[in-house]
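Task: fold both queries, return tokens.
Query 1:
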Amino acid sequence: MALVDFTGTDLRQANLQGSDLRGSTLNDAYLNDAKLVGADLSPLSISDRGRAIPGNAIGASFVGADLSRAKLRELNLTNADLRRADLSDADLTGAKLRSCSLDGAKLEGAILEGADLDGARGL
């Protein structure tokens, strides 16, 4: 499914576990409670930063993804690969970032209040 345009698509509660979504566009998509465990979302484009993306992205790959200003509150990103991701001004309040890789990630202005960063690398 790489390079799919999901603009405006309702993916709430979708099971995208292990999906190859490399280079896909999720502008204005609804991803609430989507299961993204092991999905490859690198590099990802999300233009509507107003949508909350809570749910489960354990082990997902967001390498080089533009998640600037994204609302990722309480998202479970345990073991996720966020190398070189742009998380500037993203809201990661209460997110689980345990053992994830943040090498080269941009975190300027990111809100990390209550985030679990235990074992996170690259900070």
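Query 1 returned. Query 2:
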Amino acid sequence: KQTWEKPDPFTFICVSHLERNKGVDRLLQAFAILKKKINHIRLIIGGDGPEKRKLKHLCRDLALNDVVFFAGHMERRTLLHNLQTSHAFVLSSVFESFGVVLIEAMACGLPLISTRSGGPEEIINNDNGLLAAGNEPTTLASAMEAMISGYAGYDRQMIRQIAEEKYSQHVIAKQYIALYSTIIDDLDARQDVDFEERSNK
């Protein structure tokens, strides 16, 4: 099981392209709500994008400059280090088709938090994280608070294993092969039916 050593702040990390669809403004608002209840927390935001300046201004307005860190674009080694030394990954997208970054976070053993934005609903379950009850800052803050209080119940090794078993390149390749085989078989069956229909005319 995972543990949180209280001398260290509970660290959430979000890595995304900083654009409006990613909802990082909503994440900052949620974090501000949570900060009023739990003081010993921090947030790392990785990535760059057109909303970065606006988000930094919002961070200042919410008086979060001391506990929110904009890491910018991170090289692979730095990204892995920040993931491995954080406690939980949080995604606040308005829409997310799949959420590859969630898989990367799982591969580092991190439990996940996400808004209901499409793809995350197919990835997150009771074993590896929490889905916010809604997409408002208040519900995201509640999910983040629940993550802290229930953190000891998540197994980092099991989360890592789930990522490997369900989403490794080998597994995904086998799934694509199976999908393509199904499509080809379906096309062959349709061609056979078309041929028989033309022969009977």
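Both queries returned. Flag for query 2: Residues 170-180 have pLDDT under 50 and may be disordered.
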